[in-house]
Structures are given as C-alpha cells and as structure tokens.
Amino acid sequence: MDCLGSPLTNKYSEGYPGARYYGGNEVIDKIENLARSRVLKAFHLDPEKWHANVQTYSGSPANFAVYTALLKPGDKMMGMALTQGGHLTHGFFSETKKVSATSLYWKSQQYQVTKEGLIDYDRLAKEAAEFKP
Do both 126 and 67 map to the same domain? Predict the structure, then answer.
C-alpha cells in the first residue's frame, strides 16, 4: 500500500530514463534504472547483452481497446495533435510516417489549438463536418 499510494502512481513518465517527454522524472529515472538492473541480476543476464523494460502499461492500451470496440479498421477518427497537447494515440502521424498504431488502423485527422492554447470549437466543428469521423 505504501508503494501504490505514493506520488509515483500519478506521475506521468512517458519515455525512458534520461529521455522523458516531461520534466520532473529524476527520481522515477533512478527507480526505473534500479529496477532494470535488479531484473537483469535476478535472471543472471549480462547488461551488455540484455535489456529489461520494467514499465507498466499506460493509457495507450486502454485507448486502443476503446477504439477497437467502437471503430472498424479504416474508419475515421479525430484527435488533438500531439504537438498541441494531444496524445500519441489520438491518431498521430507526421508528413512522412504513420507514427502511432491508431494512424495505421484508422484514418485520422489531427486538430490544433489556438495560439492561446484553447480549442476553437467553431473551427473544430467545421473540420469535423468536412472530415466526417
């Protein structure tokens, strides 16, 4: 209960130690590195040859479960762009690559926020009417 009730349960720490997408993960990096080294030691694995990932699942599998329950392959979806505060699972893709699994299975369109960081709902409604997710 001490571990599950700690601030670590609510700290978003996407990425890997030393290369997180969000700041404030220094303690999490230390904990994750310690856990990775202990896994390798427990299984008598050479860290020069092996790697251990001790990260738990995130919201990505949860989002994917909802999408697969509601959408058929090839259906259209819209989501806030990753660069605007959206999530990778909101159908993110770049000019040259479909980055997220959601952009591989479904046709996605990303919407933007204003320079003030707000959603322009009139513009979003117009884009949705044209794209028809």
Answer: yes
Confidence label for 22 from pLDDT (cuts 50, 70 and 90): confident
How many domains is the chain built from?
A: 2
> What is the model's pTM?
0.60
The reply to whether 69 and 41 lie within a common domain is no
Which domain covers residue 44, as residue numbers?
1-56
Tokens of 30: 């230390």
At 32-54, the pLDDT tens digits run 999 999 999 999 999 999 999 98
35 and 85 assigned to the same domain: no
